[in-house]
Design a protein that fits this description.
Elements (H helix, E strand, L loop, with lengths): L4 E6 L3 H7 L6 E5 L9 H14 L5 E5 L6 H9 L7 E4 L5 H10 L6 E3 L5 H5 L12 E2 L4 H6 L13 H17 L3 E3 L8 H14 L3 E4 L5 H7 L4 H15 L6 E4 L2 E4 H16 L1
Parallel strand pairs: 1-2, 1-8, 2-3, 3-4, 4-5, 6-7, 7-8
Antiparallel strand pairs: 9-10
Length: 277
């Protein structure tokens, strides 16, 4: 299944994690990193482990651990031993070597979702991912500005500044080059649901398959944005049917426009994703 929505939940808030199970997100990212203060991390590890062990069916459960080679990371890994997880979210990822180090340390064969743009070096490693052991690839525009001394990653109207437009595009292409789902980053203003809907729609248009959320109110909007409409599915079926009835054709006319191999590939991909869901 392709994850449309991946909701972050602080690991030190058991009541929020419990509630999040029923909010409709395709996946939950139980956070042990940025949203948890250092003093609260031991309790968070215990709470996350308890939830994973007793959680019934529902959203996929992933854990965001602390960066590789930190003391907090070692404690996170120890707390996950034998846990029935779907995957692990890796912050500060810097290419295959970081993923390999994480997978070697993990007490199980858990697929990894790297957050692949949080350091300057990470940006230059985006083409290094080969898909091995990955659940997808995502990016972020919060840590990187701080790492380089930028005052913001956004213009006054909320759009990204030029450096972060580049980073977003590179992350998108890196995911597709690795053959894994491309996951759009968070939309920080959780009160602006209209803005979120427009942002998520652009993400799907550009080739992202899902998006991370920081607030429960964002889940339904993201799910809707990343769910193909009946009109889209019907149009895709027409393209496929047209080529099936004209085997060997390179380009055909449909409703006054030309369609060819890329249109057919896109239609098949859309229908395959809908069937998988």
């Amino acid at each position: 299944m392709t994850w449309r929505s991946l909701l972050f939940v602080p690991g030190d808030r058991p009541e929020r994690m419990e509630k999040a199970l029923g909010l409709g997100a395709d996946a939950l990212i139980l956070d042990l990193e940025d949203s948890v203060a250092p003093a609260a991390k031991p309790a968070a590890r215990d709470a996350v482990r308890r939830l994973i062990e007793r959680a019934p069916g529902g959203p996929a459960l992933l854990v965001r651990v602390n960066p590789v080679a930190t003391e907090a990371f070692a404690a996170d890994v120890a707390a996950l031993a034998g846990a029935p997880l779907i995957g692990v979210v890796l912050p500060k990822a810097e290419g295959r070597a970081t993923v390999a180090a994480l997978r070697e340390a993990l007490p199980g064969d858990y697929p990894v979702l790297p957050i692949a743009t949080e350091t300057p070096r990470a940006v230059f490693a985006l083409g290094d991912y080969d898909g091995a052991g990955l659940a997808g690839l995502t990016w972020g525009a919060e840590d990187l500005p701080a790492a380089i001394g930028a005052s913001s990653s956004r213009e006054a109207d909320g759009g990204y500044t030029d450096p972060y437009r580049v980073v977003r595009a590179l992350a998108l292409f890196a995911a597709h080059a690795a053959g894994v789902p491309a996951i759009e980053t968070v939309y920080p203003d959780f009160r602006d649901l209209d803005g979120l809907g427009a942002y998520a729609a652009r993400g799907r248009r550009d080739g992202f398959t899902g998006m991370m959320a920081i607030h429960p109110a964002q889940v339904a909007v993201i799910n809707a944005a990343f769910t193909p409409s009946e009109a889209e599915l019907a149009a895709a079926r027409r393209v496929v049917a047209l080529f099936e009835t004209n085997p060997g054709a390179g380009a055909l006319q449909l409703d006054g426009r030309m369609v060819d191999a890329p249109h057919l590939a896109a239609a098949r991909r859309l229908l395959a994703a809908a069937r998988a869901d």
